[in-house]
Specification:
Blueprint (H helix, E strand, L loop, with lengths): L14 H57 L9 E4 L2 E10 L2 E10 L2 E15 L5 E10 L4 E3 L2 E3 L3 E3 L3 E3 L3 E3 L9 E3 L13 E4 L7 E6 L5 E13 L5 E9 L2 E6 L5 E3 L10 E6 L5 E2 L5 E6 L8 E8 L7 E4 L5 E3 L5 E3 L1 E5 L5 E4 L14 E3 L7 E2 L2 E3 L1 E3 L3 E2 L2 E2 L27 H14 L4 E3 L11 E2 L2 E4 L3 E2 L4 E4 L3 E3 L3 E3 L4 E4 L2 E3 L3 E3 L3 E4 L3 E3 L3 E3 L4 E4 L8 E5 L3 E3 L4 E3 L8 E5 L15 E4 L5 E13 L3 E2 L1 E9 L4 E3 L7 E3 L4 E12 L1
Parallel strand pairs: 5-7, 5-8, 5-54, 6-9, 6-55, 7-10, 8-26, 9-27, 10-28, 26-29, 27-30, 28-31, 29-32, 33-35, 34-37, 35-38, 36-39, 37-40, 38-41, 39-42, 40-43, 41-44, 42-45, 43-46, 44-47, 45-48, 46-49, 47-50, 48-51, 50-52, 51-52, 52-54, 53-55
Antiparallel strand pairs: 1-2, 2-3, 3-4, 4-56, 4-57, 11-25, 12-21, 13-20, 13-22, 14-18, 14-19, 14-21, 14-25, 15-16, 15-17, 15-20, 21-24, 22-23
Amino acid sequence: MSSYRPLLKNHQAGQAILIAVIFFLAISLTIVLGVATPILQSVKIGNDLIHSKASYFLAEGALEDAVYRVKAGDTVNNGDTITVDGYTTTISVTSIQGNQIFEASSNYGGIYRNMQAAVSAGSGASFSYGLQAGAGGFYISGGSTINGSVYSNGPIIGNGGSKITGAAISANSASLSSDQSNNVPTPITSCNSSTCLTFGNSSASQNIAQSFQVSTDGPLHDIQFYLQKNGSPSNITVKIVADNNGSPSSKDLLSTDGTITASAVSSSGLDWVDATFPQSLTLYTGTTYWVILYLSKASSQNYYTTGVNSGGYANGIAKVGKFGSSWSNTSPTGLDMYFNLYLGGVYGVVCGSNSSTSCNSTYAGELAVGSGGVGDAWAHQVSGTNVVGTAYCQVGGTGSPYYDNQTCNMSRSDPPAIAMPVSDGNIQDWENQVTSSITGGWTYTGSLTPNWQGTTTSSLTHITGDFNSGSGNDTFTRGLEIDGNMTINSGSQVTAGPLLVKGNLTVGSTGLILTGTLWVQGTITVSSGAKIALASSYGSNSGIIISNGPMNLAGGGSLAGSGQTGSYLLLATTSDCPISASCNGASAVSISGGAGAVILYAPHGQISMSGGTSVNAMAADYINISGGSTINYNSGLVNMHFTNGPTGGWNVSGWQEVQ
């Protein structure tokens, strides 16, 4: 009988193999993790680096955009954002004593980078031409030379072999009187709801508009506005649009709008500012037009104020709103903006003539324009002129009666008028800066003739009478106000600034060294051999002399900057001579002989220059140059920088990454 024996399972079979497999997996995992961890860490570091660089460039780009916008006159507000490829960078703005700190914060893939720039308010003016004339025009004779270009809102007439080495441009001048005006009463010294209106401070009043009708058909020349700025607003774009049922339409009649630069508007009070238009636009009677002062965005800190009155203008009304959107009545209703609108008057002309006062050509070459193969003449009429470049004109040509060296190129329309480089508001700000900077100290009652023969004082800041310099070198380090006349006699020198002379200033000796702005409310006379210069502390900055009366600069006198490159002395007068009877026929500025790093400016009067004088640039309503005088234009005058005065832009003073 066979027996059956069941097989028993060994539950421990393969245990050693399983343990070996587990150990193998553990060792393999350790090896894999040991290899993968640094790889993954490297990948993360690489990704973080990529994200960090991307975040950095986002912040850097946003900061560059913000600084560009503020330098271009646009407004940058705290909290503004810029989005690129779905990632947003936030701009923060902090104002510190008139300067601004911009910080751009970006987040790309969880990596934050912060860039910071500091910009300081610059003060300046831009003299883009060797010579710029207003409606009075420019007259050159006696072999005089302009080493640069000339732009005139009136005629350019030359004779006697005179030369302009750059371009000569003459715009059509405006009528002597405005076609449409609303300007009473002025000045406005105190603002209330019926005399002033703000715009650009909120979305509801981001723009302001005024309707008008002209009394005669004619081309628009320029419009003046009565403005004040608050904070640091952007430039104003000036639009002319059609009427749409009693409100401004969204159709701009100008392909290129006019501009009012923020730097031309005073921050200390309302004043007139001129807006010119690069494109000619003919306005017609019986048609309602609107002029819009346009800002691209609103800011509660940076905006403008305009003078207004109630029902002062019969042919229109003011409204507030936004171009391309809705418009509302003013509050209170029925207000009108202050403005003066001028239509075109006399055609512009570049003319070589045998007369020093009128265009009367008899042969070519009385006036030479251009050198080295370049230098255009551009005006409605070009005649009696030898042009190296191209003669852009509608009237002119070779032979009688024009006697040019070439025929007219008619591809360009007549050139537009341009505004003067410095506004009346700028000058007012400079004057205010002088008075606000002279504080404290003690007052000398009566007239003073120092007998200390050379001293330095930081305490005397006010003389109630005249000042006559002694025989030494006198220095006033705290600024000085003189209620009477100031005379600097032979053998003496005075160093002072800011300096306010309420009478007349006569410099007859070694001269006057300025450590600040000079404001003379009377006349300025610089005798032969005398000198006015900026102190060396100005460095490459420029300085300012303001006169409310005529200036007479005699032969051999010296007018100079600090001695460093880029430093100039700007002589500006508000005089309208020779128009006023009190001028007795004298010019606002008369200069004969002498030289220096100097710019002459007389926006309401005439500059007469003769006797071999050499200056760097000039601008005036009417300019007459004779006797072999020379203007040597320096391209650096496009960006003159002053140590004080109205804001002329922003300068980057710091750029760094922050935590």
